[in-house]
Amino acid sequence: MDVPLGAFLPAAVIIALIVIPIGIALVTILLLKRMDRRGKRRSPLTDKLPYQAGAQARQRVDAITTAITERAMQVTLVGPMIMLALLLPRVKWSELRFGWGDWLIVSGTVLAVIGLAWRAVGLAKERRKWQDGMRAEIAAAQQLDRLQAQDCLILHDIPAEKSNLDHVVVGPTAVFVVETKSRRKPGTGKVSATVAYDGNALKFPDWAETKPLAQARAQARWLSDYLNGETGEATPVIPVICLPGWFVQASPEGQRADVRVINPKMTGVFIATHQRARMDTARRNRIVHALHKRYPESSD
Fold first, then answer.
1. pLDDT number for residue 102
2. Residue 177 CA to chain centroid, in angstroms?
3. Which of 27, 198, 239, 272 is the most buried (most CB within 10 A)?
4. CA–CA separation, 109 vs 94, rounded Å?
5. Do 182 and 132 meet the contact criterion of CB atoms below 8 Å apart?
């Protein structure tokens, strides 16, 4: 008995709905790996970053969290896979017919899978951006923390009104808010990781930016107003932009500008005492206490 070719169509569609999402997932993973290998811009960070307290334990916690997520996903697949194993052999494929509603579901499923894959690519790019930013902040923090030996008080990742302050340095004579920026370099060699600063813009090898300067000024104004309200004393705050891995070339205008631009190893700006009076210990303690109040209570 000849079976019409159309009788196999429902079976082919059902099998495709099982195989295609898996194929798209694998292709997405391979594309993401290829994009990472062929990226034209590279991280400017070349120094090894020493572990912070609890770093290896945090890595282990992250690995366990990933494993738990994977197991949870596997558990959710057990039921549908068993159902398919039980029901598919009992299906009379020659009697199946697809109506417009069935095709609508199939089309919606295909579009949903493609949309999820596209979102996964976007999340991977976003993850890399946050990962670069995290490494840059760690690199900056490790350099800034050394200033404690020179009578500076350092706090990191302080919640502000609508954002966060990457670092705050309470130096002997002034308060600094440090905004760390991660920018990938476009090539190799020192020239590709050199940024020029003239007081008006950050001039990277093949692009320029002014937004970080405005952001640093806004953060300094907010922190100054906050400290004024908390301590009852006028507390000017000096904005600083930190670019880990970049060689900063500041012109005379850039060196005199209100926003300082540094590599995190250029820590002299925080301990310079010329033209500024030294703050007494009690005042600095009040400033640090006010900053500590911005951190949330532990939820553990």
1. 74
2. 20
3. 239
4. 23
5. yes
Instruction: State phi, psi for 42 to the nearest 5 degrees.
Output: -125, 160
Three-class SS state of 61:
helix
Q: Are 194 and 246 in contact (CB under 8 A)?
A: yes
Mean pLDDT per 10-residue segment, the chain (300 residues): 49 63 68 63 69 74 82 76 74 71 79 80 81 88 91 91 90 93 81 88 91 95 94 92 92 92 88 77 93 79
DSSP for 64-109 reads: HHHHHHHHHHHHHHHHHHHHHHHHGGG--GGG----HHHHHHHHHH
Give 95's Cβ-side CA count (13 Å radius). 3
Q: Which among 177, 192, 169, 188 is positioned nearest to 246, based on CA atoms?
A: 192
E strand residue ranges, 118-274: 153-159, 164-170, 175-180, 194-197, 202-203, 208-209, 237-242, 247-250, 260-262
Q: Structural domain boundaries of the chain? A: 5-141, 150-292
What pLDDT, on the 0 to 100 scale, is given for residue 215? 94
State the greatest distance between any 2 C-alpha atoms of the chain, in Å, as a whole number.
101
pLDDT digits (tens, 9 = 90+) for 231-287: 998 998 999 999 998 999 999 999 889 999 998 888 888 887 666 788 889 999 999
Are the CB atoms for 13 and 97 separated by under 8 Å? no
Contacts of 265 (CB under 8 A, 6+ apart): 143
Report how far residue 18's alpha carbon sits from residue 15's, in angstroms, rounded to the nearest whole number. Answer: 5
Q: Which candidate, 180, 198, 144, 209, places its Cα nearest to that of 44?
A: 180
Strands 194-197 and 208-209: unpaired
Residue whose token pair is 């966060």: 164
